[in-house]
Amino acid sequence: MTRRGTSHRPQEQLATRRRLLQMAGGTAAGLILTPRVWSSVSAQASEIALGALMPLSGSGGSFGQDMLKAAQFAVEEINGAGGPLGRKIHLFQENDETNAEAAVRAAKKLIDINKVSAVFGTWASSVTLAVAPLCQENKVVEMSTSGSSKITAIQKKGFVFRTEPDDLLFGRAYAECAIQYGWKTAAVLGLNVPFTASTVEAFRERFEAKGGKVLSITTYNENQTTFRSEVLKAFASKPDFIHISGYDADTESILKVAYESGLKTKWLLPGFAVTDSVIKNAGPAIEGAYLIEEGVAEDSPAYLRLAKRLGGDRYYSYAAQTYDQANLLALAIEAAKKADGAAINGKLREISGPPGEKVTSFAAGAALLRQGKKIDYDGASGPIDFNEDGNIAKANFRISQIKQGKSTPVGLLKDVLF
Amino acid sequence: MELKFYLISALVEASIWALPAAGVTLIYGVLRYPNFALSEYMTVGAYLALALANLPGITIWFAAAAAVVMTGILAAAVDQAFFRPVRQAGALPPILLSLGLMLVLQNVVRFVWRNDVRELPVPLVEPYEIAGFVITSHQMATIVCSLLALFMLFFVLSRTRFGKAARAIANNPNLALVAGVEPEPVYFGVLFVAGALAALGGIFLGLASTITPLIGWQTLIPIFAVAILGGLGNVLGAASAALVLAAASEYSLLVVQASYKPAVSFVVLALVLLVRPSGLLRSNL
């Protein structure tokens, strides 16, 4: 409240002084905070920025945590060896939530704000497909662990690679497994999603080529209230085994329904559909079921190092892949002598496949590259030789069986080919 | 043998659909708007039952009953808090509110209980074979409890004062007001009943398959198809329609591929509406 007739000078001065103090304080804070803010937003000039975009929640959530830890471990090893071109890697991480929209937002942030040269670790095919055009436009390399055959078409345009066997290879693997066990007739229950069509077709082709017979293929939808009738249809022709091509929720429901209808058979399931909670929830319904999982190079020094670091109590398939992806990116940068996406894109095939001396770590590979030699990185998830389509040309698969509530390895399928 | 198997599937499916559909039809009859959030009360009910049943010393029966009551109270409370202010605002606001509520409920569930696939802590059971029918104790419980719930609803609507008031408002809201019926307590009761029925349906759905944040959303369309087919506002109609649509869906597997199953319900709905546009039974509570 002002007294009438007072000159406003003291208030004015107070206001000006206050303003001045505010401005000074603001500027000081800005100066102090800027490097901190800056470094959380972009790597320092000498560092190389890479982006880990992984499913830390959603359907892929049970894999994402290990995938991220594996990538961080790889970066630790790489930086410990000095880093590619003597520069450290700064790993920016984002959660794709196993959701295409969230993934695109996160990828935009990684590319535009963090200025990464590569985005790796995407798991779901829908996510990889959504992020790919963005990466290709910005000349950023994308490496995924996704299986859908649709990704091959996108990979032909460059910059996109994957360390996961294409669905077609998975389909062949189911067939090879069945033949190996001497099963002659099959029924298929397939979730009505894109990956089912290509996988089941590949399965059917290989299975029938080697003497098997597919008696029925029944497609179901994700949102059904009950799967009883579809399950009955699959059992109707009395097949030797039933292959379910779906995700965790529907696989669990089907197993439960079959058990509660008194229907028994040999089950052949995708490893990614059988998460720990499915095994726990399905209990006796999943006992004895066979799983096909993408293989890892269990004897490789790379896998052994990774398993030891992550605890060694689980099967690390996707984590092995992201570990390798980080190493491959670093080695490609070293070989190209530049750190941008186009440079990486140009050298990834060279350092990952023959010809070259086999290496299983960044340190060994970098040493050889600096001597001018060629290398062939064989990683924790397998030999990883990219063909011209950015796919791995052949893959190993592991056969596991659920025994007493635990997934136990029982066999191996080596070098499954298209 | 197949026919008998499909019949049990149809009965279980109908039991699960009829309850929330009755809730939808009840709300439409008395409050005159389609409540899209009701399917999410199925999800909420299932998760509450899951959470309670996992506490030590609580049986699944008690957990289910408590979850049903809690969801009913929640539905009524939400209605009083958010829908009451727009009672006079026309037809659109409650619809929009219910759409928003649907999103909020689903994501609150997601936030609290995450996205993993869960199961009620009820052990798997082997089926009985009775006269060629393959059925488990869980399925029998689902069918019987659902029937009981529908009977109770019918009894409440036809014989109690609350039921009479609800029917009066459904029939002619102005006349009901003039006759001295207090609308808000009736609305509270209607929402409580609808929410409770939805929760019960959700629990049975969880029992039949799995519990994920999406189970309500995945059942939204079938329950509306059932409610519309049965004549919006007619509870007996909802129950009959549930049976008709479930039977049509399951038995369609005899003639068409399983991937067309969702379409079958809609073909049936379309055909019936062509002949009887107001649904199977008259729109009368």
- Biggest sheet: strand arrangement of chain A: 7-6-8-9-10-13-14
Poorly predicted runs of 5 or more residues of chain A: none
Radius of gyration from the alpha-carbon trace of chain B, in angstroms: 19 Å
Order of helices and strands of chain B: HHHHEEHHHHHHH
Rg over C-alpha atoms of chain A, rounded to the nearest angstrom: 26 Å
Mean pLDDT of chain B: 92
Number of strands of chain A: 14
Number of helices of chain B: 11
Separation of the first and last Cα atoms of chain A: 85 Å
Strand order of the largest sheet of chain B: 1-2
Biggest protein-protein contact in the assembly: A-B, 40 and 42 residues
Strand content of chain B: under 5%
Give a short synopsis of this structure:
Chain A has 418 residues and is of the alpha/beta class. Chain A has 14 helices and 14 strands. Chain A is 47% helix and 20% strand.
Write up this protein.
The complex is a heterodimer of chains A (418) and B (285). Chain A has 418 residues and is α/β, with parallel strands linked by helices. Helix content of chain A is 47%, strand content 20%. Chain A contains 14 helices and 14 strands. In chain A, β11 (357-359), α14 (362-370) and β12 (375-377) form a beta-alpha-beta unit. In chain A, α6 packs parallel to α7 (194-209), α9 (248-260) packs parallel to α10 (276-282) and α12 packs parallel to α14. Chain A is globular and about 85 Å long. The model of chain A has no long low-confidence stretch (mean pLDDT 88). Chain B has one domain (14-217). In chain B, α1 (2-31) runs antiparallel to α8 (183-208). The mean pLDDT of chain B is 92.
Give the SSE layout.
The complex is a heterodimer of chains A (418) and B (285).
Chain A: H1 9-41, E1 48-54, H2 61-80, E2 89-95, H3 100-113, E3 118-122, H4 125-137, E4 141-144, H5 150-155, E5 160-162, H6 167-180, E6 185-191, H7 194-209, E7 213-220, H8 228-236, E8 241-245, H9 248-260, E9 266-270, H10 276-282, E10 290-294, H11 301-310, H12 317-336, H13 341-352, E11 357-359, H14 362-370, E12 375-377, E13 394-403, E14 406-417
Parallel strand pairs in A: 1-2, 1-3, 3-4, 4-5, 6-7, 6-8, 8-9, 9-10, 11-12
Antiparallel strand pairs in A: 10-13, 13-14
Chain B: H1 2-31, H2 38-53, H3 60-83, H4 92-113, E1 128-130, E2 133-135, H5 137-159, H6 161-171, H7 173-178, H8 183-208, H9 215-229, H10 235-251, H11 261-275
